[in-house]
């Protein structure tokens, strides 16, 4: 056996049943040959670093090849995030995105073999300590044995973590924390028990305080824009051919955008329908793609399931201006429909079984299956805790383990007035805008009545010197946390607290922080209202008021009726599963430019495009949840629009996009993702200009709308683990190149318009401080994308052949007699060759070191410049 053949391990075929062992072995040989070729970035890397296994094979119909995820190993143990992507076409490596770890000292790395370690015993020893050290809920229900519902399953495996120029042998644990939304990914040193890495795989879409403030809006409730179905008629329908649903059918985004309609399940993609997993048929909102239910107590299990009986007619009344108990079946039905529809649409664009999609049964088409989406409506609302409001999240573990979508309720459109004045008479009937706290009692049903008294000290940050027994404290905002003020007031005897802004620049936000010992209610009022009350108290006026916040009277906004938000959450699962190893390669701890929020917004926009829309229609994100009409601003910094008068965000503005969470400065993923989605949205309308528009991307695969969605999906599959904006752009360019590169310049121009031009730089990928402030924007495109008239004329005189070429190309000209500077650039604009030659009678150029792909060959002479496309195909 030659030395090279020992550098890869046998492919584990579990999950790749669509491929034969023969083809898998052939792929191993191709990859091994590539890693030892001059084309590889690892050509000078030590022998041991090229050990690998193939972890996933995905057939891409759009790119007409197989996409391989290749996992680097050492001593037969995976190297953490040592993931490379290969595209195999026509039995050769068409594209390689290499990401193997090469800079470690083997002498400092454990030499233990995998077979010498009792993984079960090590895991049993480390896991209880992990729970204690990481302060994670302990439970006897955790198990290392995989069960049907995966609920308490702890996935474990040995892993090498690169750190300080060595590989540390660790145990990787992936599990869902009981009774929470958290899905933990934790690495523990098997020798010391030290936690080396702790990441939450759940993507939370709870927005920063002040991003929205709709619980004090005074505009009226949105009108329910539907013609209600006559229940007496629809209930008589029996034995329908397939299931039917009364839902907000795509592209209707939410109740404020249009009417509900009766639609049938679609068996075009899901051949057994939406209520059959190949083994069991259901009459509930459960099937092969999703299991939708209500989870009021946040236990990650159903508290209520909608069951239509044998008729499979899911038609229920809905009035969004009524209390929640009147329309929960309608909500769960819409959540079920939306998840199935998203599954079917993206299946057509490559999110299939081998791409690690979400299905309980994969019907022997590859992938692991057993991972239908668990979609939970009104999650945790029964906990009566404001921390479980204004939120949605998606946890996407590795292929074969169920993802979980949690949809929450959002603050009401117009909550009842919390403060009413009893005296003096000039304040009686005055309405004041209030923001509540996410600490203290969730609901104040029994009215709290008392005199309003200023605290001493005024800011409430130290022990009060005045007795506030049975009073309502009036406290200035600032200097210390809200919890400190309210707790000091509580100790002084106050039965409620009103905090007021002391500066007009202070935002009117929900009062944050936590303190479980606070038992009295509190609220924040505006600067203007605060000044009015302060002046009255200073003049000696006695103010008596009633505070009441009875949340049982609220008319909540249910995000399970917001298709845009559902698509957004599901979109996190798509981008996570398609990138790298499919579960932890979009992590903000590994890349400050984590663009997951951007892909999710883009997907939501694409599936809710209305037939009459065009580029002039600016789109707000999440307007329904934000209690706005469809033309509202939404929850992002600006509306999505290619018009810079509406949205002028560019790549450079990602600098400094941070938030402080738990005292730690982190990347503001929502704002950073918004900039990425802005670029993708611009690209959509460029494709529409060239190829035409389609509201329904499945109706016309040749439309610009369908083409750009396919391009973005292909880019996700090609990009590196934990990509930057630059990596994401280059992957999209590569996807276009693989299919001929016909739209290359249009793509460059679109990205460059937003500052992601050829000289843009991402700077450092990780860290705080300068690492979140060193992105460099650039607005230039490759030279050939801005050809002048003179360049076009010169191009007609220059002959480049053969094209496609292999190891040599000839360049000739009938008129240019002087020396010519010849430069070759790859698709990302990187210069790969630079020579000076006389081409008058023809000159040969060595291209043997160039890998397969599309290049631009640029010639500069006294007569001018010329650029042409060169294809290398060996």
Descriptive account of the structure:
With 874 residues, the protein is an alpha+beta fold. It has 6 domains: 4-102, Roll (Nuclear Transport Factor 2, Chain: A), CATH 3.10.450; 114-200, Nuclear Transport Factor 2, Chain: A, CATH 3.10.450; 214-412 and 556-578, Elastase, domain 1, CATH 3.10.170; 419-553, 3-Layer(bba) Sandwich (Glucose Oxidase, domain 1); 596-781, Neutral Protease Domain 2 (Neutral Protease, domain 2); 785-872, Immunoglobulin-like. It is built from 13 helices and 34 strands. The protein has a 7-stranded mixed beta sheet, with helices on both faces. α7 crosses α8 (596-607), α9 (669-691) packs across α10 (704-718) and α9 (669-691) crosses α12. The model is unreliable at 1-18, 207-241 and 788-793 (pLDDT under 50).
Write the SSE topology.
Layout: H1 21-35, E1 52-60, E2 65-74, E3 77-89, E4 92-97, H2 119-134, E5 155-163, E6 166-176, E7 183-189, E8 195-200, E9 202-204, H3 231-234, E10 244-247, E11 261-264, E12 290-294, E13 313-314, H4 328-348, E14 373-377, E15 392-395, E16 404-407, E17 409-410, E18 419-423, E19 434-436, E20 444-454, E21 472-476, H5 482-491, E22 496-500, E23 522-525, H6 527-538, E24 544-549, E25 557-558, H7 563-578, H8 596-607, E26 658-661, E27 664-667, H9 669-691, H10 704-718, H11 725-738, H12 744-753, H13 789-795, E28 798-801, E29 808-813, E30 819-825, E31 831-838, E32 843-846, E33 853-861, E34 864-872
Subcellular location: Secreted
Protein name: Peptidase M36
Family: Belongs to the peptidase M36 family.
